[in-house]
Amino acid sequence: MSGRSAILIVGGYGQVGREVARLLAPRFPGAVIIAGRDRAKAEALATRLGHGTRAMGLSLPLRGEPPPLKGVGLVVMCLDPETLDLAECCLAAGVDYIDVTAKQESLDALERLEPLARRSGATAVLGVGVAPGLTNLLAARAHAGFEHVERMDLFLMLGGGDAHGAAAIGWTLDNLDRVFTVQQDGRPHEVRSFREHEVVRFPGLPRTRKAWRFNFPDQRMVARAFSIPSVSTWLCFDSALLTAGMRLAARVGLSWLLRVPALRRGVMRVLGACRLGSDVCRVLVRAEGRLGGHPATREFAFEGRREAELTALVAAEAARWLLAGHRPGGVLALERFVTPGPFLRRLEESRPGLQLWMGSV
Ligand SMILES: NC(=O)c1ccc[n+]([C@@H]2O[C@H](COP(=O)([O-])OP(=O)(O)OC[C@H]3O[C@@H](n4cnc5c(N)ncnc54)[C@H](OP(=O)(O)O)[C@@H]3O)[C@@H](O)[C@H]2O)c1
């Protein structure tokens, strides 16, 4: 291998990272490097995947260590590091960067690296995954079909029987009882996780579900990107019992107790092992506005299995675009980096069991 053709997957043996590696290794033989704090785990996965996949021991933050970017052309970040030192090194060195984070603070900090990326010609793609990710793409596609959108609701149904990684569970617990801002009637409005709900019927399901407010960053990204007066994201699980349990935990203020490290570790272990329901992952975007001069409502949806796998599928497809030479430069949200309609259709066709509804729900 020569030049900068290596793809460094950080958090590469985690739930999301290992799926990204599994998708990219056969497509880019000899290029994939799996990185994480436990080199032995990275090596075991690299051996299992084959196709010349390599392993690297890497602990973030770098704490003054030189960035491991020799020969690397693309970094796929599959964890939420404490600092963005590696991202900064990538963008300073002209190395492309994909981030799956759902943490608002990380997204904001990454956006501030835009001038660095512009100077070096690197491209960073943010909001890659399910929410943010698929929800943003569906929102962009929905928005394009309207003359004016007044309100958009983004719904996510997670499978209670899905295997979620420690980082993803940690993020959910951190946001369990969070006060956060949404855009409502054109103004910032403070709300709290799991306090209000909206009713949704996902395609193919016989009955409606209650979905609850949750602090996904996609609602703010979409409101800002498309200047929509009201945008909210709503979460439910396929298991009504799990949805009720999470709601109760939020109501009784479990997040306070979870600041005790031992308790948090215990709850994370239980949630990591708990299987209540299927591994389905559904997203639906409902847009309300004006179409052909008349009030209209349209719904766009995507369905698959395993949130981590869908996140990885989106990340691998974004990687494919970058590695095919689509490198506009700068820091871009996924829906600005790709053309949403064709990207979503390609995802749907990439494997059996994925289904896309474009305004026809
Ligand atoms: N956008 C979306 O829709 C979406 C969906 C799902 C997940 N996510 C995000 O994806 C990320 C990964 O989630 P996941 O479920 O894959 O989590 P995970 O299974 O816990 O994986 C995290 C990986 O990072 C490694 N790691 C942790 N801390 C590290 C450090 N300081 N330095 C180097 N490596 C480190 C872990 O291995 P070691 O601990 O052995 O180092 C592990 O391999 C999270 O940020 C999550 O919020 C986004």
TrEMBL record:
InterPro entries: NAD(P)-bd_dom_sf (IPR036291), Sacchrp_dh_NADP-bd (IPR005097)
Signal peptide (residue range): none
Segments forming domain Saccharopine dehydrogenase NADP binding: 7-125
Pfam families listed in its UniProt record: Sacchrp_dh_NADP (PF03435)
SUPFAM superfamilies noted in UniProt: NAD(P)-binding Rossmann-fold domains (SSF51735)
Protein name: Saccharopine dehydrogenase NADP binding domain-containing protein
